[in-house]
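Predicting holo structure, adenosine monophosphate bound.
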Amino acid sequence: MAEKTLFQKIADKEIPADIVYEDDQCIAFRDINPQASTHILIVPRKPIPTLNDLTPEDKTTVGHLFLVAKDIAAQEGLSNGYRTVFNCGEDGGQTVYHIHLHLLGGRPLAWPPG
Ligand code: AMP
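Done. Tokens:
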């Protein structure tokens, strides 16, 4: 069996994290190195390495991550807006190879990103 990803270990409670939401498809927890006052990662339980590995069967799961992001944003009081980001691969700045949707908010976010 393949070694668990860092985020699978968090989902399995082998590594602690500040979990804000979980269900049968995903888990959401605060980023350890937050880039805004709200910075939450929403991670599917399925360990898909990058967006390039998505298959049609992942459609519902990925859509679910955005619905969860919207609910957490409301829970966090981000009524003035927020950003959701998937980084993909080296140039995209991905460092953990288990896809995750970043939810960032609580300050105005610059565009374009660095
Ligand atoms: P990315 O660079 O898009 O792959 O994002 C990975 C994110 O995971 C970074 O923002 C890290 O700060 C965050 N991260 C790494 N390790 C942990 C951890 N143990 N708990 C919470 N967040 C983490």
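The chain has a mean pLDDT of 97.
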